[in-house]
Design a protein that fits this description.
Layout lengths: L4 H24 L29 H5 L14 H20 L3 H23 L4 H15 L7 H26 L6 H14 L1 H25 L11 H27 L1
Helix pairs in contact: 1-3, 1-4, 3-4, 4-5, 4-9, 5-6, 5-7, 6-7, 6-8, 7-8, 7-9, 8-9
């Protein structure tokens, strides 16, 4: 969809501002801290961050990646999340247009960004994201042109069911937990927003990429195959690719099999 450059700028700025809040979620949710109070502060010296030092992307460059008060290094992740959030906002509007369904999809993508970085850091996927996500995704399907209520319900059932069966089977065979309950709930949320086809796509792609990444990490780790690798980021990657390229990739794959 053709979007004027000025609109793209405002959409990006909006997404980057949301990304700033997502950084707060990534930092505070695993520690069960309030997202509202206290106000943003330097994690090193505890000094409150004034509004002019909290402008997405701009403040990071102006401050040269250091706290104004104590000169502690500001992690690169902060502007990366802000930039990613802004770029995804623009990409969704370009793909789906300026409509409320695009806003719902963007909220879903924002949740995936938070899940990805929390799972990387702590290897957990907070229920406070997935449980409300399932409800919101299902509720949105009643008014959406992109997904039917039936697809959303099937997506939840297939998403939670497949990974639950896999996880239980793995435990029965190995007596070890190879997949956490958070992954099951995450896939249910993906199904609620995108439907059952997206669940199959996400599992296929996420498992393929996750397996390759797990092998690479295992080769570099002394723990070998016992090295724990967060699966949430790979499920999130699969869901993101489905949002932007899912139908095209599925058609390409079906055509490839038909040759």
């Amino acid at each position: 969809m053709a979007i004027p450059i000025l609109y793209k700028f405002f959409v990006f700025a909006f997404g980057a501002a949301v990304g700033s809040f997502l950084n707060v979620c990534i930092y505070r949710l695993p520690n069960s801290r309030s997202l509202i109070r206290p106000r943003s502060m330097c994690p090193q010296c505890g000094a409150p961050i004034p509004f002019y030092d909290n402008i997405p992307l701009v403040s990071y460059m102006v401050l040269r990646a250091r706290c104004r008060n104590c000169s502690a290094v500001i992690p690169l992740r902060y502007p990366v999340v802000e930039a990613a959030s802004g770029l995804f906002a623009v990409a969704i509007v370009m793909r789906y247009g300026l409509r409320w369904e695009a806003l719902v999809l963007y909220a879903f993508v924002a949740a995936l960004l938070v899940v990805t970085f929390i799972d990387i850091d702590h290897q957990i996927i907070p229920n406070i994201i997935t449980y409300p996500g399932v409800v919101v995704g299902l509720a949105a399907s009643f008014f959406s042109e992109f997904i039917t209520v039936k697809d959303a319900v099937l997506g939840i059932a297939v998403g939670a069911g497949i990974l639950l069966v896999v996880a239980l089977g793995y435990y029965l065979v190995t007596k070890n937990e190879g997949m956490g309950g958070g992954d099951v709930k995450l896939l249910a949320m993906i199904g609620a927003f995108l439907g059952w086809k997206a669940v199959i796509f996400t599992i296929f792609l996420g498992s393929a990429v996750g397996t390759l990444a797990g092998l690479a990490v295992a080769l570099k780790s002394r723990k070998g195959r016992k090295t724990a690798v967060a699966f949430g980021p790979f499920l999130s990657l699969g869901a993101l690719l489905y949002i932007f390229y899912g139908p095209e990739l599925i058609s390409w794959y079906v055509h490839l099999l038909g040759r």
